[in-house]
Amino acid sequence: MKHTTTIPGAPPTLRHFRAALIALAVGTWLLVACGGEATPSASDGATAGTTPATAPAATASAPASSGTTDGEFGSTLYVGGAFRSTSAGRNYVARWDSLVEESLMPGEWNTLAGGLTGNMTLSAVAMTLGPDGDLYVAGGFEAAGGVPAASIARWDGEGWHPVGDGLQVAPGSALQSIVFDGSGALWAGGTFQVDPGAPNPWGGLARYLHDEGWTYVVDGPLAGVHALAAVGDRLFVAGALTMDQRVDENAVWQRDSQAWTNLGAVTHTVLTGTAVDAMLLDARGDLVIGGTFTHVDGVEVNGLARWDGNNWTAVGNGVHGFVTTLALDAAGNLIVGGGFNEVGGPLPVGDVTRVEARNIARWDGDSWSALGEGVRGVVASVAVDNAGQIYAGADITTVAVWDGSAWGDLPSLASGGSVRVVFVAP
User: Per mean pLDDT, which range of 283-287, 300-304, 327-331, 375-379 is the poorest?
Assistant: First the structure.
């Protein structure tokens, strides 16, 4: 069921307890499913390392264009997170530069002009490519390459630039998601300061236009935004409903022609404060969401659901755990990452066969398949390059690479920290 309404202005309220929720969910999953094998972090659900494996050989398939020089955007891998290497000058963001034509290895990490800095909890959380071909990076930071840039910056291949005046995120927080719509407008979601003098100064959604700068959305049902997706003039938003200064529920919303449509509330049979952590449009144009929930609009989906424009259904009966990231491969199959040890739901349903899969799996529309032995630890982000290789980031400072038959690791980014986002520029 969907409910359409134009909601009068009400300043959004601060999103509560998400870190505690993820920590509880991860801890519960590990206790039940893993017997304490891995030790997760409470940082946005991103946890431990990859299955030990050798790095991909120099003869392995690689992006069609390696992007070895600044300003050249081919199928190039960018990563961000909470990592820093003082000796290498690598700060929270990097690009992998292959040194051999048409081969992923050998290679090296490019520092992108010194990366991100600031006096706060530093991290890069989200990336996207703009209509101008530049890379946009969002998270929690105050400057990029020495250029003042509040929580969001643009990399043009040679240097960093601010995106308007940026957005002042809540203490200890970061922008969670950024996306461009069909008109070229940039949308940013998270929890950030709208009006310092207001009784409730926090907002969850903002729009950026080059000629107008940032506009805060205060006419919508938003307290804090977890995920965004866009197609044409339609914007999909996962956030909390605010009505008369009261947070009522987490839900998925569609914004179209300045009206908001509630597509359904996300809930959990045990936990409170559930969230949608990942969102994309699949090969059919349907909206797919993943997160720490068991139901959407009353339908049991086990952390993974599809909206076809009229109804919610479970994708492959969901997962036995929770979902933090989604991607599509070249064939349009859905790559699902998160914290789980099986896919196909906690109980057998219909014709879907349950499959053991450690924290990452593929859904082809009919059945699940594991990707080798999977990734040890909750997968925070996945991306797919032009050659079909899959990259997975977690809470260690290496990136796992699936070449179609085995996992390998790229060299470590730093001695400690985590990878929060992996992004391939096509």
Answer: 375-379
The answer, yes or no, to whether the previous bond of 131 is cis (omega within 30 of 0) is no
pLDDT of residue 144: 97
Q: Which of 383, 377, 289, 398 has its CA nearest to residue 330?
A: 383
Number of domains in the chain: 1
Distance separating alpha carbons of residues 383 and 78, to the nearest angstrom: 10
* Residue in 321, 398, 315, 395 with CA at minimum distance from that of residue 349: 315
Distance CA 239, CA 14 (A): 11
CATH number of the domain that 137 lies in?
Answer: 2.130.10.10
pLDDT one-digit tens code per residue, 20-39: 333 333 333 333 333 333 32
Q: Which domain holds residue 233?
A: 3-425
Q: How far is it, in rounded angstroms, from Cα 185 to Cα 197?
A: 28
Q: What is the pLDDT of residue 247?
A: 57
What is the C-alpha separation between 53 and 120, in angstroms, rounded? 35
Q: How far apart are CA 213 and CA 420, in angstroms?
A: 27
Say how many Å lie between the first and final Cα of the chain, rounded: 37
CA distance 408 to 159: 31
DSSP state of 40: -
Residue that wins the pLDDT comparison between 294 and 43? 294
